[in-house]
Design goal:
- The protein has 138 residues and is mainly beta.
- The protein has one domain: Metal Binding Protein, Guanine Nucleotide Exchange Factor, Chain A.
- 5% of the residues lie in helices and 33% in strands.
- The strands form two sheets. The chain has a seven-stranded mixed β-sheet. Strands 1-2-5 form a three-stranded antiparallel β-sheet, with no helix packed on it.
- A hairpin with a 6-residue loop joins strand 8 and strand 9.
- It is globular.
- Bound molecules: zinc ion (2 copies).
- The site of one zinc ion (ZN) has 7 residues, from helix 1.
- One zinc ion binds next to loops.
- Keywords: Lyase, Metal-binding, Zinc.
- Belongs to the Gfa family.
- GO terms for molecular function: carbon-sulfur lyase activity; metal ion binding.
Length: 138
């Protein structure tokens, strides 16, 4: 039974051909903060060929990356929900935004850009259940 989610207005739906989402990653980078207008992003690294998107997300080419290689940020043009991001640095995977999915999430396995975490945010990292390769996020 695949995992399904959607943006807020439900124009875009996402189907992941897995029984459950892989353990998420919490990212405090400024790009994720701004793209979601929030304090951090919760995403899960999923092989691109397991993700199906119904609808037509807009794509923002985020060039403000440390590597200089643009990262594509897909979002809903109607309700603005971030959908996923992807980079040529990690061509097999995408960073899928966990907030699209209503079912419970497992605790995160990793924090990215910890230095940009606000002092009042406390995220507990759980042991890695299934190792998944994470490329440089930016
Ligand atoms: Zn939407
Ligand atoms: Zn980030």
């Amino acid at each position: 039974m695949p995992v399904t989610g959607s943006c807020l207005c439900e124009e875009i739906s996402v189907t992941v051909d897995l029984q459950e989402l892989p353990q998420p990653v919490v990212c405090f980078c400024i790009n994720c903060k701004k793209s979601g207008s929030t304090s951090f992003s919760i995403e899960t690294v999923v092989p691109r060929d397991l993700v199906q998107i119904a609808g037509n997300p807009k794509i923002y080419s985020d060039t403000a990356t440390a590597s200089g290689i643009p990262m594509e940020r897909l979002f809903c043009g109607t309700c603005s929900s971030p959908i996923l991001s992807r980079t040529p640095l990690n061509p097999d995977n995408c960073f899928l935004k966990c907030g699209l999915f209503e079912h419970p999430l497992t605790p995160p396995r990793k924090i990215v850009c910890d230095a940009r975490k606000e002092s009042w945010v406390n995220v507990e990292v759980a042991p890695v259940e299934v190792p998944v390769e994470v490329a440089a996020h930016l």
